[in-house]
Amino acid sequence: MTFVQLIDCRTSRFDEMNRLMDRWVEQTKGKRTATHDIIGKDRSDPAHFIEIVEFASYEEAMRNSNLPETDRIFQEMVALCDREPTFTDLDVVRDEQLNVLAARAFFEAMGRMEPGRIGDHLTRDYVDHDPSYPRPVQGVDGVREQYEGWRAAFDFTFRIDDQMAQGDQVCTRWTWVAHHKGEFLGIPATDQDVSMRGMTWQRFREGRICESHWIYDRAGLLEQLGVLGQ
């Protein structure tokens, strides 16, 4: 279970505090177990800061606390604070990144939804970057046409292997599993089961996808269809 520690402190010497944290990051390379660190400043009180440190588990947090570098930096941090910091320990019981959920819903719907529904997931000014296209596809109508072509050629589903998020961006690593039922790039239906792995980077705006970049093993797909390697 993910574990989060909140450190609440007051200081008028934040620049020194910031440099202190940089030193801790440098000194604990290869040792620290913290996975994410955020420091927020109170908008109504410029001397009030809250640091949020994330760990994979409580046990990992304890390993981190026992590092000599952590204890040394903590003592220096206390000296920079106007009063001793307070700590709140939290076991994370719910963690949902909403753009990740939106990306997952998109891939789970692909292959199953009718072409007319693809706009449910996209902004009106959506841009699709695919290495197999001569230029980016602009707008929902263009993407619907591309989707119709894939759907006419294959019965397919996406299996999500991994997802990572940063800001308004989500990267999804996926496996595509399909049955070749119709013409694809001039290749008549082979009635073969095929698969392909790839990754898609997507940017979100107001809960919908506004841009995608696709990377996938198209050559491997063509080889499975008997076009390459003969």
UniProtKB/TrEMBL annotation:
It comes from the Bacteria. One of its GO terms (biological process) is polyketide metabolic process. It holds the Pfam family SnoaL. This is Ester cyclase. It comes from Streptomyces muensis.
